[in-house]
Amino acid sequence: MSAATHSSRPLSVRVSREKECADNSMVEPMSPTGRVMEELGVCIVVVIGLGTPVNLPVFRAGIETELLTRFPRFRSIQVMDESTNNGKPRWVQTPVNMDDHIVVPRLDPEAVASDPEKAVEDYVASLSLLPMDRRRPLWELHFLDFPSSEAASTVVLRLHHSIGDGTSITTLLMASSRSTADPARVPAMPPPPKRTGAIYQREPRPPLSSGDYLALLAWFWSYVVLAWHTLVDVAMIVATILFLSDPRTLFTRADGVEPRARKRFVHRSLSFDDVKLIKTAMNCTINDVLAGVTSAALSQYYFKKSGDTNMKRICLRSLVLVDARPVSTRQTYVTRVETGNRLSSLICPFNIALQDDPLEYVREAKRFMHRKKSSLEVLFTRVVGEFLVKKFGVKVYFLLLLYFITSSQ
């Protein structure tokens, strides 16, 4: 297997104001969340299955026309501002050499022929362990031009998380794709979602002239519940930092093991139609179904791997990343694609148990996610995180986050 050469250490690049571009649009400050992602070195790996063999010239032309032209982050590098005392990072646009970002690896033909799915999985897993070269824009496209059971060929996009979060990258990919039958036509988007605001947004107040006092009381009570749940969640965060921890299980990091120890990432494909069927039947969200499926899978894995015959419920907690953007109608994605990160986090209970009814995992996920939607925890963690990064620097925030994660184990 061979791939592009990567720098083993981030390249420290500094520019002064005298060396800046005259056009201020060429320079963009990095957001606090982006600075945290830069410190953590987190990358997003997107695996896309194609129905036809790879047409490299078409992909290259599309990348140059769409990604590089419309989205400045894909032609920018991270630099440090010497004019400030603490050297805050910024995005500065730079010329792009497409050959540095398009990778066609040479894999073992025998391994590909014997098990193409494993060849794809091994290659994707290897990408999660490689650092990115900071001397050029932090994205790559890897083309695996051989058939597997799920696709005729595979494209793997790897980019640094500081460029954007999952929502912005998904929207970006949709905005950059075109119909094969009509190259001028953009893909159709699903109908607008029911919710258009933040996850904690309450229903609008009923008009006072309506005389519906029960509706007014329910509206007022929703804010009382919101305040109470927020108070409880903030107290749980403080308690976790100070003393509260989860029981030790085989999912807990062993003592003496580095937090960044290498781990292998594997995937499993699910039928989206099946997920939507469960979503509709149980009146929940797709995320609720996926959280329930994950809880079921980890529960089965735990009792099988540990050999534990004690079937009591084990209550763990998970740190779930949440996009803090209000949900839009998604119909403006062609002209408005917001790059960058607007992430926050939630502490969610994650029960390890063997249920007689598999759908009980989904019901539990629906209950706790509904509970989290009636709390300002996601807003609290985002505001506090940005305050710490701006006032004390990303290293202080990173040390606090690392302590928070390890203290909960």
Automatic annotation (TrEMBL):
Superkingdom classification of source: Eukaryota
Region ranges (Disordered): 1-27, 180-202
Residue intervals of the O-acyltransferase WSD1-like N-terminal domain: 68-289
Keyword ATP-binding carried by entry: no
GO molecular function, one term: diacylglycerol O-acyltransferase activity
Subcellular location: Cell membrane; Endoplasmic reticulum membrane
Extent of Polar residues compositional bias: 1-10
Biological process per Gene Ontology, one example term: triglyceride biosynthetic process
Reaction it catalyzes: a long chain fatty alcohol + a fatty acyl-CoA = a long-chain alcohol wax ester + CoA; an acyl-CoA + a 1,2-diacyl-sn-glycerol = a triacyl-sn-glycerol + CoA
Metabolic or biological pathway: Glycerolipid metabolism; triacylglycerol biosynthesis; Lipid metabolism
Keywords: Acyltransferase, Endoplasmic reticulum, Transferase
Positions of the O-acyltransferase WSD1 C-terminal domain: 340-400
One GO CC annotation: endoplasmic reticulum membrane
TM region(s), chain numbering: none
Membrane topology: Single-pass membrane protein
Record-stated family: In the N-terminal section; belongs to the long-chain O-acyltransferase family.
Record's protein name: Diacylglycerol O-acyltransferase
